[in-house]
Amino acid sequence: MCQKNAPVVSRLHKLIQEDPTLADDIKMLTISVADDKVRADDFKAKFKLPFPIFPDEKGETYFALKQPVIPSLLLTTTGGRVLMNHNGLIEDFDGMVKKIREIHKKQ
Predict the structure, then answer these.
(1) Is the separation of the CB atoms in 33 and 70 below 8 Å?
(2) For the residues 7-27, what does the mean pLDDT come to?
(3) Are strands 72-77 and 26-33 parallel, antiparallel or unpaired?
(4) Going from the N-terminus, what domains does the chain have, and what CATH number goes with each?
(5) pTM passes above 0.90
(6) Nearest-CA neighbor of 78 among 3, 23, 2, 14?
(7) Other CB atoms closer than 10 Å to residue 94's CB: what's the count?
């Protein structure tokens, strides 16, 4: 996750958590590529992010998921199924929310 996207993703997480139709089904997480646990935890604290950030010091998870762009956002269901992945900055917040709602309805 990059610094520029952190406030937007935090806002998205809040919206999901406050929506009763989404909150129980969708989980958000990020992978901190090339960072150790200390750096990932520092980033989480600096931007007051309320969702898990997993350090991926060697980039193994990142490359296994075939993520070509940083930042990447991964939304999963509570059961662990990948609901959607978004690569790059979220530039259209309302469009992203609409897409999440559409994908959620189809699951």
Answers:
(1) yes
(2) 94
(3) antiparallel
(4) 6-106 (3.40.30.10)
(5) no
(6) 23
(7) 7
